[in-house]
Amino acid sequence: MYLIKTPWWLRLIYSSFVWRINTKEKVLYLTFDDGPHETATVFVLDELKKYNAKATFFCIGNNVVKYPGIYERILNEGHSVGNHTFNHLNGWKTNNAVYIDDIEDAAKYIDSTLFRPPYGKISKFQASMINQQSLKANDQSKYKSFNQQHSTFSIIMWDVLSGDFDIKLQPKECLTNVLLNARKGSIVVFHDSTKAWERMSFALPEILKHFSKEGYVFKALSS
Q1: What is the CA radius of gyration of the chain?
Q2: Among this protein's residues, is 166 annotated catalytic?
Q3: Digits of tens for pLDDT over the chain (223 positions)?
Q4: How far, in Å, CA of 185 to CA of 19, rounded?
Q5: Catalytic residue (choose from 33, 102, 159, 164)
Q6: Domains of the chain
Q7: Which of 102, 159, 191, 192 is catalytic?
């Protein structure tokens, strides 16, 4: 079970995470998780180029190692990248030290201060380790030595899930999820992966076309 639109109360509980961008301008922030992928990422880049659209790719370190040329193309075409762990780990099911080390392994190949937890699942302790802004003032000294050894990230979540990862979802439903819920400043999640390919490859061109006609521009998140 998952929520297409992130509710206000969840954003309030996890207020140190970035859920959307506060803006009055017609801007959407498309994001793509789990790449690079030899087919899906190339398709996404080609579609974005048609609209001079920029996006953010939350990459798995292991996939960057496999497809360094595609990763370089992402950067060369003006998109931003983020860390999505090296092995796509679920924070809720992973030892804290193992989880943080996996993020650090990915950081060797992904030069970014942006981080998105796979499945959106990360514990408060894990978050505090990679996002110093989430630490309470009285905890700073407690974790100071740890944080000196590990990178600091902004944790990027989302405002709208396309649902392209859901194999039970029809491609048109994936499109509708975004059309009905995206608004100014929305961070929208897609996946450049084999699993999401059927739905993402249908929805993305339609979304780019629709929102461009509505006067929106597509920007990358700042690292």
Answers
A1: 17
A2: no
A3: 899 999 999 999 999 999 999 999 999 999 999 999 999 999 999 999 999 999 999 999 999 999 999 999 999 999 999 999 999 999 999 999 999 999 999 999 999 999 999 999 999 999 999 985 443 333 444 444 445 556 789 999 999 999 999 999 999 999 999 999 999 999 999 999 999 999 999 999 999 999 999 999 999 999 7
A4: 9
A5: 33
A6: 8-122+154-218 (3.20.20.370)
A7: 191
